[in-house]
Amino acid sequence: MTANGWFQILFYLLVILLLTKPIGVFMTRVFNREKTFLDALLRPVEKLVYRLTGVDEHREMRWTEYTIAMLLFSGVSMALLYLIERTQKWLPFNPQKLPNVEPGLAFGTAASFTTNTNWQSYVPETTMSYFTQMAGLAYHNFVSAAVGMVLAIVVIRGIARRETDKLGNFWVDTTRCLLWVLLPFCLVGSMVLVSQGVIQNFKPYATVELLEPQTVQVTNADGKSSTQRVTQQVIAQGPVASQEVIKELGTNGGGFFNANSAHPFENPTPLSNFFELVLIFAIPSGLTYTLGRVTGSERHGWAVWAAMAFLFLAAVTATYWAEAKGNPLLLGTDQRAHALQSGGNMEGKETRFGIANSVLFAAATTDASCGAVNSMHDSYTPLGGMVPLINIMLGEVVFGGVGAGLYGIFVFIVLAVFIAGLMVGRTPEYLGKKIESYDVKMAMLAVLILTFTILGFSAFAVVRPFGTAGVSNPGPHGLSQILYAYVSSAGNNGSAFAGINANTMWYNTSTGVAQLLGRFFMIIPIMAIAGNLARKKTVPESAGTFPVTGALFATLLVSTILIVGALTFFPALSLGPILEHLLMAAGKVF
Amino acid sequence: MKNNLRIAILFTLITTVLFGVIYPLTVNGLAQLLFPSKANGSLLVKDGHVIGSALLGQPFSSPGYFHSRPSYAGTGYDAAQSSGSNLGPTNHQLIERVKADVDRLHAENHGAPSPIDLVTASASGLDPEISLAAAEFQISRVARARGMSETDVRSLVSKHTLGRQLGFLGEPRVRVLELNLDLDAVHPAP
């Protein structure tokens, strides 16, 4: 660990802190349909969308209709994505003449991008046409992010409103989110990325002669090795910047290229890396302020922010420590950090990012449900790789996915005030609303669905041959790979211990189902709580009310998250990364 | 329900046109207008031919060139198949590969231990850069192979060294392909 590394990490957190209020205020105005400086440009487009679709912008919905509209939209747009993948051969913008995507992969990918997961079991540059990438995948980066955000807004409204069953109009909220929040950020942000070297074109792949042609050993399909002369380099191209920016801002994470944000065309410089990191946390962090603002308790918003920031710093510290220490099994190498190198475990990491920026990205992308990676988590040291795994297991509530992080932490807030209520023997209250048995049951249901999906699928996969067939790293690391696949899917993260061969019928369908369960079955109970809270009366604060604004509340919230996560997942972790760490320290190789 | 289904279909189509087609085309137009070279891949051109990209590494093996990091992109530095090794930290393939590379480098460069980045595969398989330590480690070998003085080689290395961006972001590093092109220009290999 170096002073400069720590400076970069703390500087990043400071920038996020400073952005929280302005972004939170802006989003509050957008979703309250108040005036903003973009109205002159965007209001006509908004009206046009309503006219063409027949949306009545003044009509509000109950939570059930809101949820049904969301499910219908997700279903229809997922079907369109599937259709685009299956017909890309005949569609425009396909200079590489890539064939249609086969059904299992097309389903898995459609589920993956609709649920904001962006798990990818294929190599994009040899599988997806430019049209599929922009009109199918990048499109879903926009809309799945918008869906997550409007659901968080509904939760906030549920807390803030009283004695009503109306929670807003799904189509209006989604349209405003797309036009006011995501579009302007992306237009400006994509130019920032291009200025650093992120590519943006529709050209066919370029072929260049290598400066020094190489003779390489290759293993053929029949297992025999032979030598091959390599004289050329094929350079993939494409409309990358327009997708890269929403990939981060919408915490989607699906790379235009296989190497994701480690690819120099997606993330060419330390500055582009920093910018992408800021995009990942910008909206989730801003939403904590929106929560406080709309519910009339800005200090509550900041208390939630503080709990998140604490968990984030803890995760970064642990990964940084583990990765900077390096891999003791790599004898004869210099892994110390000094003036000429950043040292540490550099397998699967880029030189320009070194250890500090790799671990910062790994922590942020798994705290948020982003899943973009600028280093390969599969090659992390056991404990370094365990932290991203734990981040997702905790429900991605540390800032979290756009919207998903906020409605995820809302579940833990309900549980935390419930526990506080039990301790003092009073009916728990949250910002003036009584938290009753129905709310707590729904919150627990959301927690259990995630747990059941992750552990259920993992347990099944480790005892079936088609499950273990995907494992590429032997020993305890193999269990970590399978566990990571389902944690990432159910948590809608999308990052991977990427050595796992997941492009099989079993993994494409099972991860697809886990993603759909983890997204939509989580949402329904949370929407039910929001609908239920909105109907309630507000009770005035009294001396017996547990305050949700201070350090005590933040501590209780952090404890609740950690206890629920540890009780659920510690046994699985001890057989995977923890066991591998102990064996690595003992010098064991698999 | 029926009304919302109708809206869902129309909404999907309209937003696909707006965000799936018009938006990327707008970004494309702006990028090609404002940053044409970068938008097309920062390609390096020599004598009218494209010879690579400043942002993508290439493989090197002869002693007169600075070597890049090990790569798992296709057969090595295949810029249409980016990939890391995804080998776990206790995987015997990783340990054996690193050991073989360490032994080879030790014989080639009369120096030990090897800088870690020079024997570990990058995440993209296309890393265009190596650490300053990895460059310093190779200077004497390159100088010997080309019959140049180490001082001359070192000054070329520092010409292609990138510092931390804005003074604190990222890590200092050396661009390998451009350095090797410059070596050829200044002092052709025998």
- Number of separate domains of chain A: 2
Question: How many domains in all of chain B?
Answer: 2
Anisotropy-based shape of chain A? globular
Strand order of the largest sheet of chain B: 4-6-5
Q: Helix count of chain A?
A: 17
Strand order of the largest sheet of chain A: 1-2
**Distance N to C terminus of chain A:** 28 Å
Mean pLDDT across all amino acids of chain B = 94
| Number of E-type strands of chain A | 5
Going by helix content, strand content and strand pairing, the class of chain A is mainly alpha
Q: How would you sum up the major sheet of chain B?
A: 3 strands, antiparallel
Oligomer: heterodimer
Largest interface: A-B, 135 and 113 residues
Q: Stretches of chain B where pLDDT falls below 50 for ≥5 residues?
A: none
What is the strand tally of chain B?
A: 6
User: How would the global form of chain B be characterised?
Assistant: elongated
State the low-pLDDT regions of chain A, or none.
none
- Radius of gyration of chain B, CA atoms, in whole angstroms: 22 Å
Could you please describe the fold and organization of this structure?
The complex is a heterodimer of chains A (about 600) and B (about 190). Chain A is mostly helical. Helix content of chain A is about 60%, strand content about 5%. In chain A, the strands form 2 sheets. Chain A has a two-stranded antiparallel sheet. In chain A, strands 4-5 form a two-stranded antiparallel sheet. In chain A, helix 8 runs parallel beside helix 10. Chain A starts with a helix and ends in a 5-residue tail after the last helix. The mean pLDDT of chain A is about 95. In chain B, helix 4 crosses helix 5. In chain B, the strands form 2 sheets. In chain B, strands 4-6-5 form a 3-stranded antiparallel sheet. Helices cover about 50% and strands about 10% of the residues of chain B. Chain B is elongated. Chain B has 2 domains: about 35 residues; about 140 residues, no CATH class. By secondary structure, chain B is mainly alpha-helical. At the A-B interface, helix 1, helix 2, helix 3, helix 5 and helix 6 of A face helix 1, strand 2, helix 3, strand 3 and strand 4 of B. Strand 3 of chain A pairs parallel with strand 3 of chain B.
